[in-house]
User: Fold AMP-binding protein from Neobacillus pocheonensis.
Amino acid sequence: MSREIQNTGSVYSNKPWLSFYPEGVAHQIEIPNITVFDILEKSAYKLPDKVAIIDGERELTFSELKNKSENVATALYKRGFRKGDRISIMVPNCLEYVIAFFAVQRLGGIVVLVNPLYTPAELDHILRNSESKGLIAFKDQKEKLEKIAWLMRLYLLRQIRK
Assistant:
């Protein structure tokens, strides 16, 4: 860290950006002590039938997203994954990714993002380096995972059809 930032007389301690805030915007906020999944749970309670996610022609309401995420979290728990475990998600940007993300959050796990386009060597490196205990992927990645002996720690997602 530079000395300017550590110095209490630096431009950062003066916070000049605050002068650009519109009137009525708080300069400090209180951050509640809740999890990301708590936010989804609250949304599912308050807005159960509101659309939470749109992926092309597919949609999920907050209630559906919460329920599907809890189902995946339960399946992960039954496979031995626990709070604090690093779990990689190798799913493209789609509805199933969001479900997997919230499932890991529900479990209390740590999400490790993995590019589905990685080669087996790249995948092996990132999974070992991140100390992932498991991986969530679509079954079209199974062959790639066989090459690096990751099938025992694999949770395969099915695509949701609506």
Observations:
- The longest helix spans residues 62-78.
